[in-house]
Design a protein that fits this description.
Layout: H1 3-13, H2 22-25, E1 41-43, E2 54-57, E3 67-73, E4 95-99, E5 103-105, E6 108-110, E7 114-116, E8 119-120, H3 122-142, E9 145-155, H4 157-168, E10 175-179, H5 193-196, E11 200-206, H6 214-226, E12 230-236, H7 244-258
Parallel strand pairs: 3-4, 3-9, 9-10, 10-11, 11-12
Antiparallel strand pairs: 1-2, 2-4, 5-6, 7-8
């Protein structure tokens, strides 16, 4: 199917452009990566049958469909545009999908309510994880992506969701990147240990993180190793953000597991 036809089919099937895209930029909670003036968004949030609002961006280097895909999961208080600029530093063959968390939180969104750091509120966490599982399972029916080559990248709360998706539905993702997050192993149930073994994951954390302490990143490391995950673990002398060296390591890791 020609790319133009695919794009036109999305617009017809998913009622795209239902609101002025500029309104999304007014949400205003961005990371340092969020200069999006150059980003070409091929499809936008709308009345899609998928369970989460999202944006997608076509590969910067066109190839044969189905494409490998990268799912971006933002942190608390941000939105689906927050991590998009990361894609410029990653494999240009990737079809990018960036999901919006379902819970309004000030000017942005959150994946779950929290009582304390490391303790998601069970009901909101469970509902968001179920929605994320449905969302990822349905993506290949909505977009021209390869279901065996869907990778996830989450930051902060988004990292918690990416890790929880790997624990509970490892068959849905070919690789998982957790940046500045933790694993809620008591809530992300049931853990599919048989399918989880040897699944690749990249876990990274800042040693000076004042929000999610480094001990939580190290605990995620230990949990994944205990479960037999093919783990790459890194620490960086940074706080609660994504550093340049960290992003280069993520890019290299994606190329390695996805094929350079």
């Amino acid at each position: 199917m020609a790319w133009q036809h695919v794009r036109d089919t999305w617009r017809s099937a998913h009622a795209l452009y239902p609101r002025d895209l500029a309104a999304l930029f007014s949400l205003g909670v961005w990371s340092g990566w969020s200069d999006l003036s150059h980003v070409n968004l091929e499809a936008f949030v709308g009345s899609s049958p998928l369970p989460l609002e999202h944006v997608v961006q076509s590969p910067r280097v066109q190839g044969l469909t189905p494409f490998p895909a990268l799912l971006l999961l933002h942190g608390r208080g941000a939105n689906e545009l927050d991590l998009l600029s990361l894609a410029d530093e990653l494999d240009p063959r990737l079809f990018i999908i960036s999901a919006r968390a379902p819970i309004p939180f000030f000017d942005g969104f959150a994946w779950y309510q929290i009582g304390a750091i490391g303790e998601p509120e069970p009901a909101s966490f469970g509902a968001s994880l179920a929605a994320l599982q449905r969302f990822v399972s349905q993506l290949p029916t909505a977009y021209p992506i390869d279901p065996s080559r869907i990778y996830s990248l989450g930051f902060s709360q988004g990292a918690v969701m990416a890790g929880s998706l790997l624990l509970t539905r490892p068959e849905l993702v070919a690789g998982t990147i957790m940046l500045s997050g933790y694993l809620p192993v008591n809530l992300a149930r049931p853990v599919d240990e048989a399918r989880l073994a040897h699944r690749p994951a990249f876990v990274a954390h800042g040693t000076a993180d004042p929000l999610i302490p480094i001990a939580m990143g190290r605990q995620a490391r230990d949990d994944f190793l205990r479960l037999g995950v093919d783990l790459t673990y890194r620490e960086y002398p940074i706080a609660h953000h994504i550093g340049a060296e960290e992003l280069r390591d993520v890019a290299d890791w994606l190329l390695r597991i996805g094929g350079s």
